[in-house]
Amino acid sequence: MKDNIILIGFMGCGKTSVGIRLSYKRRQTMIDTDKWIEKKQKKTVSEIFETCGEEAFRRMETQCLEELVGTAERQIISVGGGLPMRKENHALLKELGKVFYLKVTPEAVYERLKDDTTRPLLQVEDPMGRIRELMERRTPVYESCADVILEVSDKSFEEILGEIDRAL
Ligand code: S3P
User: Fold this and answer.
1) pLDDT digits over 93-144, tens only?
2) What atom in ligand 1 is closest to the CA of residue 15?
3) What is the Å distance from ligand 1's center to 41 Cα?
4) Is the entire prediction scored with pTM above 0.90?
5) Residue 148 exposure: Cα atoms within 13 Å on the Cβ side
6) Cβ-count burial 71-93 (b if 16+ within 10 Å, e if not)
């Protein structure tokens, strides 16, 4: 297993904001799989979903992990909310490092993302229903991928970083 720190969890759980703070604190660089894909494709995630479809995006996520397994050392890696849903990604995540699952409630996700337009999966008439449905399906998968599960809905960044530190 490599020595990266991997952050997984539902959209809006705080992977990016926790990752950035962790990166400052530990003086480790951070990689975000969505950003990595956007840079490589020269398109936003929404544009990729629109022009190539979700399945193509999922293949890009696996390709991103495969590259990171070959290159990433001592990094903070934040992964897109749907990435753990592909079975072949589980071994890659494990190989990359210690996996932290940031667990949130559907209500917290809704509050944080209700005005967001960058998550194609939530651009529907009933976003709360979609959040609940996706979360129900994803929670057991996130849990099975995780080395550490952190409840984060009501916690400050300081508390979350403290818990990650203790688990490392
Ligand atoms: C997705 C989550 C997004 C992004 C894409 C699909 C998902 O990343 O990869 O919109 O399926 O949950 P974040 O979890 O960083 O929002």
Assistant:
1) 999 999 999 999 999 999 999 999 999 999 999 999 999 999 999 999 999 9
2) 15
3) 16
4) yes
5) 17
6) ebeebbbbbbbbbbbeeebeebb
Nearest 5°: phi and psi at 79? Answer: -115, 150
In this structure, the residue with its CA closest to atom 2 of ligand 1 is: 81
**Position 99: which residue type?**
V
For the structural domain made of 4-167, what CATH number should be given? Answer: 3.40.50.300
User: Which residues have CB under 6 Å of ligand 1?
Assistant: 11, 15, 34, 45, 80-82, 119-121
Contacts of 32 (CB under 8 A, 6+ apart): 15, 16, 19, 77, 78, 79
The domain segmentation of the chain, as residue ranges, is 4-167
Task: Evaluate whether 98 touches 147 at the Cβ level (below 8 Å).
Answer: yes
